[in-house]
Amino acid sequence: MDAWPWWVLAGLAVIDIAIRITAIIVVPRNRRPTAAMAWLLAIFFIPFFGVFLFLLIGNPRLPRARRRKQQQINDYISETSEHLHFGTLRPDAPDWFGPLVRMNQQMGAMPLSGDNGAHLISDYQESLDAMADAVRTATNYVHVEFYILQSDAATDNFFRALEETARRGVSVRVLLDHWANRYKPRYRQTVARLNRMGADWHVMLPVQPLKGHMQRPDLRNHRKLLVVDGRVAFMGSQNVTDSTYNLPKNIKRGLHWVDLMVRLDGPIVASVNAIFLSDWYSETDQVLSDIDIAHATQGTGDLDCQVVPSGPGFEVENNLRLFLSLLYSAKRKIMIVSPYFVPDEALLLAVTAASDRGVEVELFVSEEGDQAMVYHAQRSYYEALLRGGVRIWMYRKPYILHTKSLTIDDEVAVIGSSNMDMRSFGLNLEISLLVRGEEFVREMRHVEDEYRRLSRELTLDEWMQQPLRSTVLDNLARLTSALQ
Questions:
Q1: What is the pLDDT at residue 484?
Q2: Alpha-carbon distance 239 to 225, whole Å?
Q3: I need a labelling partner for 89 at 20 to 30 A (CA). Which of 22, 40, 59, 70 fits?
């Protein structure tokens, strides 16, 4: 075989150098240093494939039109809530709590509201049935928004509730993530059932180039929420699907998901509804002007609550800033539950610095992973965490601990859809609920105690016995996790 002409080789060399120089200029701009370094390594070692990958998934932002919509939504929420009374707030808040709430609101959150009821549901089937019971009480509308929504044996009661409610003439509006559902089991059966009941349903963040819907294909709307008549809301980590997700590989391995949902009533329901209305507008261009979020009803408790949305439509990583502020504010105890804990430098420093200043820090993760790359990336941080004094509890297989929560001392907690990983910080649309109230934190402590009972503690001595092949795999996964 003849060698390539010198001028072809010279041309390839010039292109290669141009790619590398351009990458140094373009890639680091407005990007986290770790992500920039990971992209530069990919482009330098595999230039042509690295450039293709960067063009495909290198932009972590939503398209400009969708970002404009998000800004319109933020402006509307700010104007609507400026002069509203969202219940009576609890007295004697910590000095740091007020500035934290203001920061959240400046980033796009609704105001802090008082007089709220919030109760946890930790049983998987019980939460599905509780949502079904709430749906059956609807007289005006039901708003359903879940990352994964599947009609199966476990969710049949929930879907029957939607069908019964729709037959009474109540509006049933449904949003589900496109990529997370389109190629999964039972998608066709699910949308057929939604069509038969007359639900107004749409996919979120669709990747449909022929229909003019295109953005970075791995952006996801990861939110999970339900609103009934603006009176009751549910949110948390659980999808509407069987605890195996109906995936053959999960069923074969015997995997089941463990989740946590919270039932809400009071003024905070209007804030959860505002997130649904904003996502509905983003996907449909429809403004549901007949839905009133300006008048809130009294709740069954006196908890202070604030909903914090986050995602690539916002200018900054709202959820990460919320977590960091809380970690640095803790005085006695931090409890983190995150199935995918892949921190950036700031979050890792905040966790270990808390331990250094004498705060008790515990992290709950799963003993077994369902996503290989994230699982190994997470493991790459265990040594630093253990050496930093963090206690790591591994929820025993074959269960996947999917809850996402953070409790600080005895008064403040966060629960929602957001993991503590780079994907949730930069690529997923998430929803987090900030709660202030000792009674709610006590409920969280009961759940954490149960998780601890069903877990085993990972020690530094055990971890240091990991084989070399596992360490190599973990470190490679850690590098790829920064590609955003």
A1: 46
A2: 9
A3: 70
